[in-house]
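We emphasize that the prediction below concerns an isolated chain of 339 residues; any contacts that depend on oligomerization or on bound cofactors are therefore not represented. The input was used exactly as deposited, without trimming of termini.
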Amino acid sequence: MDKLAIVILNWNGAKMLRQYLPGVLKHSLGQAAVYVADNASTDDSLSLLRAQFPEVRTIVLDRNWGFADGYNKALEQVDAEYYLLLNSDIEVTSGWLTPMLDYMDDHQEVAACQPKLRSVAQRDHFEYAGACGGFLDRYGYPFCRGRVFDSVELDEGQYDTPMEVLWATGAALLVRARIYNNVGGLDGRFFAHSEEIDLCWRMRILGYKIVCIPESVVYHVGGGTLPKGNPMKTFLNFRNNLTMLYKCLPDNELRRVMRWRWWLDYMAAFEMLILKRNLGDFKAVCRARRAFKQWRHDFDGDRQQIQAGHDRKKIPEQRRFSLLWQYYVKGRKRYSDLP
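Result of the prediction step, given as a token string:
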């Protein structure tokens, strides 16, 4: 068994592998085994790996299983104490693994952690998809230390202390293999988007902790598979977020939150249509609402099991305020300005 297995899920990402895999190998070999799990790519990814990266262990999947089940299928073939799920568009830095591994070894109650994510495009800024650790507001809207909605902060060291969070980014997620497998891994039905939040929330409900370790720094391109503004991305984000809430919210909150989300989601849809003139995203939100209604009872068993493990204590990383109110009415667009 390896202590740590870095697993990069790839789908037609030969360009990213050429650019960022050498850095992963340079700064990780000796501390970790490096895998690339290929989601039935049609580009030259596999021939590239054979020719230029023979030290990489390759897992070939039979079709494109998406992000969530792609990782589940790949990790079934990996024997390690820790998994590190790493996007192919991540630029790692010297010594990036040591702070996270040391913290996990010293804190057995922690199920998963993430490094600080900065942007490849603006290297002194946080990166949207995880920044310095994630939270949820009372209505299920995610935000991060360093990123609230579309407002991404300059990294001035303001969040450079380790902190317990509700969710760690799937772009660079280090998780205990035992706990990952015990909770059933990522929910493959999500395909992509919100699956890491769902996973971390489920682990948090069971009493495990999730932490951001900002001493470890990586840089992320982001939006490589589905760029922002793609209607499919909008559809997956809304459908999966609602499904995650249905699974994880306690009984005394579920009905109220879902009632509010009906109004808030359709308000967002009409804003996309009228103010932004984005018919594709408008349709995507409406389709996501319909899809959630059609499949939500497929998750009744999941909900029952998750709620049975709930200790009924408030999870402090699920904040009690409305992020929409704080951001749009109060004008609070930095994490440090929030209640």
